[in-house]
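Shipment paperwork, digital attachment
Item: protein structure file
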Amino acid sequence: MAAVSEPPSSSVIPSVRPIKVAPPKHKKQPSFWLHFAAGGTAGAIGATILCPLEVVKTRLQSSLYQPMETRAKSLNPFRAALLSMTGVVDILRSIRQQEGIRALWKGLGPNLIGIIPARSIYFSAYSQGKHLYTHLNDGKETSIVHMASAATAGICTAVGTNPIWLIKTRMQLQSESKSLGNALPYKNSFHCAYMIVKNEGIGALYTGLSASFLGLAESTFQFVIYEKMKSYMKQIRKEQRSKQSGAESTGFSLSHETQDAVDTLATASIAKLVAAIIAYPHEVLRTRMRQPPINGVQKYTGLWKTAALVYREEGVRALYGGMTAHLMRVVPNAAIMFFCYEGIVKLFA
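Attachment content:
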């Protein structure tokens, strides 16, 4: 009779413990109010410092002021840019002499009223959107996440602040030294809003909104480039610091902070420069659409009609009118704004 084999003991076949798979870790949700306050503060600082260049840029974009554009048409792009830079200085000097130094900060009131909520909404919406889209993407923060976050933040900001930007543009295009055509004599920002609604209807407060939506491409490009470069620079700095010995690394805390600050300034500037050049024509179209009526007639109506009219009457160069002044303002403004924003978030996070 065959012997019945005993079941193998536990010492022969070890017991297999179930492997616990940890769920993917998601970053803690950022503080809405911290990013709201940091964005508004950073935007206000940059706007105040660089307001004179904003005034010049707006006038160069408009068909009412074209002191440099006619001469620049006959030059190659590099000489035209140099001429424009010289022209910016001349226009700043001319505004100060003819209208007074306060005119260089014309429109700063509505600009700050607009820039503070605009940057507050944008940065807080961007931070919350990035957290949400990263969570939906299984905790992976990718360029698609950055694009979706920037687009969402841009839409929220454009809808919420378009009336303020319209008033700012009208105030900047109004000269104190003389009346330009039949431009409305706006006494202040509130009077400007009242006259626009009275003469053009409440819908006029959202003139240029379609061009603002077109401009979402610029902020999207900017944030994607910025996030990519910031991640790249962080990796480089991490590798550099990991190579340092313990004795050497103890005395470099201040140097590390300085490097991080320089990296923020550089990445913000480069990202804004590239994005602004790509998407600049929408700035001109938006300014033209926001111009006051001439002889009771609004010349520029509709995004594509405005683009076709500007191209037909003035050529493709007009779509880049004032770009040098624009870059002279937005690139350092982006550097200042992101430097302040990142610093405030890092300080209070």
